[in-house]
Amino acid sequence: MTLLAHTLVPVADADDARLTARSLDRYDPERVTVLHVVEKGGGVPDKTPVEQSEEQAAEAFEAFRETFPDAETEVRYGTDIVDTVFEAARDLDATAVAFHPRGGSRIVQLISGDRTLDLVTEGDLPVVALPGGPDV
C-alpha cells in the first residue's frame, strides 16, 4: 500500500481547496477525500452559522474538484479541528492526511493557535505538508 492510497485533505474554503488540490496533484494520490470541518462553539455560540459553514464547504468541494473531479467529500462538526480531522481519517480508513499550510504572521498563529504544528505533531497517521505558493 502506498502512502497516498487514500488521502484525506482538510480544506478551509474555496481558495484553500484550489491551492491544495493543485499542490497535491503532482503526487498522484490513488483516492482522495476532501474534508471540511465546521468548528462548533462547545457551549458558546458557533463562530459562523451552520448554513454559512455548509455553503463554504460546498464551494470548497467544488473548487477542489476542478483538479480532482472524483474526489469524495466529507463534512464533520467538532470543537477541535485537528482532533476532528484525525477522527475522520480513522473513520474513513485514510492512509495519510495532506494539507497546504496556511500563512499568517506569528502573532496571528499565536492568537488563533497554530493548527499546522498540531496537525504534524498530534496525529496518529502520516501527515504530508504540501509545498507550493499561490502560483502552484
Q: In words, what does this structure look like?
A:
This protein is of the alpha/beta class. The chain has a single domain (7-129), classed as Rossmann fold. The protein is 39% helix and 19% strand. It has 5 helices and 5 strands. Strands 3-2-1-4-5 form a 5-stranded parallel beta sheet, with helices on both faces. Strand 2 (32-39), helix 2 and strand 3 (72-78) form a beta-alpha-beta unit. Helix 1 (14-25) packs parallel to helix 2.
Topology:
Layout (H helix, E strand, L loop, with lengths): L6 E4 L3 H12 L6 E8 L10 H15 L7 E7 L2 H11 L4 E4 L6 H7 L2 H8 L4 E3 L7
Parallel strand pairs: 1-2, 1-4, 2-3, 4-5
Organism: Halomarina salina
Protein name: Universal stress protein
InterPro entries: Rossmann-like_a/b/a_fold
